[in-house]
């Protein structure tokens, strides 16, 4: 029986009363949220001629001290013989509970192992590793420690212990409640190297990292809207041909464009992070990451035989006033106009991850009304970051003349604006993780500093069918020979990233997560900003010869800021 008040009884019947003393012994302990599965103890030096046991501490739980046991005994009547028998009984009790040899109770800190992954304990010290179960008669000497088989042999400082718990990387040595403690930089697996036999000449071996993680997430993100100039307009019926679709008039309204809320809907994507701790470099790991936000598109289409009126507005440099190209007008032209906008974001990173500090302890859980293990850790990351944002804007007109007698024919006019932003730079970040029982909270802050390579490609073409004679031209409406081409340049920029993720430990190795992410990217080029709505009509196909007037539209880099943010849902597996 463990717990409660224990009085006189037969010391050999462990399921009943435990101690044959005049006094009494009380074992009090509390389970953590995961349950108390293992115990260990630390005892003070015992004088065989002094029958008092001064202290007996019990460590309970998967991570830290959550229970303590105090044993106070009165002087036994039978003198030294009774005291020796009492000590033997206590050692027997703790041996049955922990499965360890009684030689562990000699002024040494005892480290417990996980009951779900039990392995033989080892005695480590100046005499080297020895099997405890086959060498139970060995007495510990100063500087010797009992450790788990999966942990490097090392001497632990006061207050340190080794845990096999999902709150830490396997084999991580934890210090006291503060970042100044020792042991926060050890993550090695020591002598238990899974690849130690790979050098055998006749053996084929595939070696996997000993300790690693994979974190996959579904992304539900939205991005900052793309700014577009007014691309399609309409006018009220009976509007004069000269005023049809012209901006600034009371009879004109914008059907598409003229705002910055294009492509702002939520979109799906995915992110995966994977890495492992480097066995030969304690506390140091390497991590890779890929982020893909699925291709998003927004389409607009409108056609008319003349009513309603459709037009494409522009500023006429020849007249110095607002004007419009007709797409559909009664008895003049019928047609359709289609606009498509696309956007795609991808990113990748390779970084080193270093544990900077950690702390462990106990806390009270209001949820389960008892103490639970708590911990926190701070990791630093340094590596390489890549981002790519590809976007496009395309407009297509299909026109048919309704003046078959004087001006027959049909037209197909295309404008296309494409942008690509590629960021390459160094990334510095910090990752904090706090645990309380089964719950976790991660806070992430990173910043990429480097170069963004901006590329803008403008193209256009027109096809004119004049009574069966088809002629192709290499210009459209807003894409003319004055701005068609590919332009690129390099700019310095910064890309900060923030994240907050809550997790719940479903199993020892698997954690379900949900969180929020925000990424900001300065100095990017987007298609709508590269459109010049100022046009010289003499450039429209077929171009007037001889050409007169200003060379417009023209190209000039226009930058803006870009951000993407949203929710993340996923799971993390660690081994």
Any overview of this molecule?
The protein is mainly beta and 575 residues long. 3% of the residues lie in helices and 49% in strands. The chain contains one helix and 27 strands. The protein has one helix at 80-98; strands spanning 4-6, 25-27, 39-43, 56-60, 122-124, 130-131, 145-147, 161-162, 173-174, 212-223, 226-228, 232-235, 252-256, 259-262, 267-277, 284-304, 310-316, 321-328, 333-365, 370-401, 410-436, 439-466, 469-473, 485-505, 510-525, 534-535, 559-574. The protein has a ten-stranded antiparallel barrel. A three-stranded antiparallel β-sheet has the order 6-5-7, with no helix packed on it. Strands 18-17-26 form a three-stranded mixed β-sheet, with no helix packed on it. A hairpin with a 4-residue loop joins β24 and β25. The longest helix is centred in the first third of the chain and has 19 residues, at 80-98. The protein is elongated and about 125 Å long.
Secondary-structure class: mainly beta
Strand numbers in spatial order across the main sheet: 10-15-16-19-20-21-22-24-25-27
What is the typical, i.e. mean, pLDDT?
74
What is the makeup of the main sheet? 10 strands, antiparallel, barrel
- Low-pLDDT segments, ≥5 res: 1-77, 96-206
What's the gist of this structure?
The protein has 575 residues and is mainly beta. The protein is built from one helix and 27 strands. It is 3% helix and 49% strand.
């Amino acid at each position: 029986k463990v717990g409660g008040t224990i009085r006189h009884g037969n010391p050999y019947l462990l399921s009943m009363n435990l101690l044959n003393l005049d006094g009494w012994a009380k074992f009090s302990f509390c389970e953590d949220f995961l349950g108390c599965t293992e115990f260990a103890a630390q005892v003070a030096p015992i004088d065989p001629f002094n029958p008092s046991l001064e202290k007996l501490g019990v460590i309970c739980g998967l991570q830290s001290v959550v229970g303590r046991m105090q044993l106070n005994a009165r002087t036994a009547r039978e003198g030294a013989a009774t005291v020796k028998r009492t000590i033997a009984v206590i050692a027997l009790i703790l041996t049955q509970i922990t499965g360890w040899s009684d030689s562990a109770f000699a002024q040494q800190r005892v480290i417990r192992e996980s009951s779900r992954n039990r392995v033989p304990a080892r005695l480590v010290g100046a005499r080297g590793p020895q099997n405890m179960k086959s060498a139970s008669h060995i007495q510990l000497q100063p500087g010797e420690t009992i450790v788990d088989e999966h942990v490097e042999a090392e001497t632990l400082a006061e207050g340190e212990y080794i845990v096999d718990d999902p709150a830490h990387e396997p084999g991580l040595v934890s210090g006291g409640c503060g970042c100044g403690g020792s042991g926060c930089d050890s993550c090695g697996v020591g002598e238990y190297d899974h690849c130690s036999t790979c050098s055998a000449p006749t053996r084929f071996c595939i070696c996997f990292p000993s300790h690693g993680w994979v974190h996959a997430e579904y992304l539900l993100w939205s991005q900052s809207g793309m700014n577009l100039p007014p691309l399609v307009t309409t006018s009220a019926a009976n509007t004069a041909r000269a005023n049809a679709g012209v901006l600034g008039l009371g009879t004109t309204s914008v059907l598409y464009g003229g705002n910055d809320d294009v492509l702002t809907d939520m979109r799906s994507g995915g992110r995966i992070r994977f890495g492992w701790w480097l066995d030969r470099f304690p506390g140091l790991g390497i991590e890779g990451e890929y982020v893909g936000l699925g291709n998003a598109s927004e389409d607009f289409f409108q056609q008319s035989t003349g009513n309603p009126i459709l037009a494409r507005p522009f500023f006429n440099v020849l007249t110095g006033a607002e004007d419009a190209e007709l797409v559909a007008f009664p008895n003049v032209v019928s047609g359709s106009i289609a606009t498509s906008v696309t956007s795609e974001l991808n990113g990748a990173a390779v970084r080193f991850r270093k544990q900077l500090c950690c702390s462990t302890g106990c806390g009270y859980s209001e949820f389960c009304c008892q103490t639970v293990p708590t911990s926190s850790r701070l990791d630093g990351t340094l590596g390489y970051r890549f981002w790519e944002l590809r976007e496009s804007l395309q407009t297509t007109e299909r026109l048919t003349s309704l003046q078959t007698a004087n001006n027959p024919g049909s037209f197909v006019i295309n404008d296309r604006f494409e942008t690509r932003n590629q960021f390459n730079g160094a990334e510095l970040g910090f990752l904090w993780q706090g645990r309380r029982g089964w719950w976790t909270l991660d806070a992430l802050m990173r910043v990429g500093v480097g170069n963004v390579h901006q590329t803008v490609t403008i193209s256009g073409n027109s096809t004119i069918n004049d009574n069966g004679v088809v002629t192709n031209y290499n210009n459209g409406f807003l894409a003319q020979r004055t701005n068609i081409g590919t332009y690129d340049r390099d700019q310095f920029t910064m890309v900060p990233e923030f994240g907050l993720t809550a997790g719940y430990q479903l199993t020892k190795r698997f954690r379900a997560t949900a969180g929020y992410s925000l990424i900001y990217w300065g100095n990017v080029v987007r298609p709508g900003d590269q459109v010049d709505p100022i046009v010289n009509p003499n450039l429209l196909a077929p171009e007037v010869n001889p050409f007169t007037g200003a060379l417009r539209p023209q190209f000039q880099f226009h930058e803006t800021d870009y951000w993407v943010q949203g929710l993340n849902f996923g799971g993390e597996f660690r081994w």
